[in-house]
């Protein structure tokens, strides 16, 4: 017995990486719009540059993305041709509330997503919708300091209620925050936080600020769950984490402990969203460092009574951790750094390729939380080139995904993991969140666009297009490359 007959196969995207039309139909400016490609990208994502507008001479790929805003019917028809059962996308907050603090939403923004969801419905696709995918109106950054400010809770609640109400009957599965644990590494991208000079110089102060912002997002997530249940009891609201497994470099207990600590930093926010309270290790961290956090009894009550219905996550790689802090061989993979793993191959961007680690991660999450899981991001970022026939022969992507799907099937069939669905990341080529590149391609559909914003935006099916269609048709039974 493999996957359930109603298993949700599909693909995933994010508004700021593929929608474009950043200043059309009343949409306001967002934090992700002003993060350029190039040397400023990482410092801006990390909140190290105090800038809230475009800088002359830089290219901003989110402005146009791949123009899904004007091409959504064409794109949805293409992914429907693959047989998608689900399509994960996100809401651009500033398209609904251009400044973020208005009382009434922007009707043109609401109508756009209604049209998109109805188009999905036409093809029998379930929208999986992220309320906030690295996205906050720039006005909330400038006027309130982003998620460091408790006032954002009310604006988020207003936003969530508008979405749940307008799209009742159109959207069943919601996600409150994309990769909520990325806030600590990329505070501007994840939470609209520009660090002050004091926070940049004082690590204690910086961590205190980020823990407070994280608490605000946790409370906002609980408020969204509460609001959803008030509006429509059929709605399912999930958390979302950037998940991985961290291996100790050796069996040395010091390495095992170092790996455990690193892995746990990714769990603690989801511990709260799933279990309804801060874990003991987090409370001790706050106490030991004397962090001055504003956490009310009402907050704790909200967290306890409004836990999520399912846990969604991204999985791309595994990490290796050594306790030896003098080592200099750790390299960045995704956001976190990893020591070498001689047993694994790497992607074009140096990320460890670990299909069995996928099964391990699925088991660890399910053992820890025992609620339904949903894989909402998995995929291979690679350099794709068109051959003389205008086709991308992406056998490397097929091989990557096939091996991961095989391990996912074992997690379900052999290990008993309760899994709702699987949506590959960037099912249609889009802008990379980490690097801002178009050259880092994940899709089954090629988009004619380069890193400088040149190209016709023409869509072309890759070899993997028909392969994934076959995988879905067989409900994951046939992953062969034939």
TrEMBL record:
Cytoplasm listed as a keyword: no
Active site: 377 (nucleophile)
InterPro entries: GH, GH_1_N_CS, Glyco_hydro_1, Glyco_hydro_1_AS
Statement: the UniProt record of this protein carries the keyword Signal: no
Keywords: Glycosidase, Hydrolase
UniProt similarity note: Belongs to the glycosyl hydrolase 1 family.
PANTHER family xrefs: 6-PHOSPHO-BETA-GLUCOSIDASE ASCB-RELATED (PTHR10353:SF122), GLYCOSYL HYDROLASE (PTHR10353)
Protein name per its UniProtKB record: 6-phospho-beta-glucosidase
Organism, as annotated: Fundicoccus culcitae
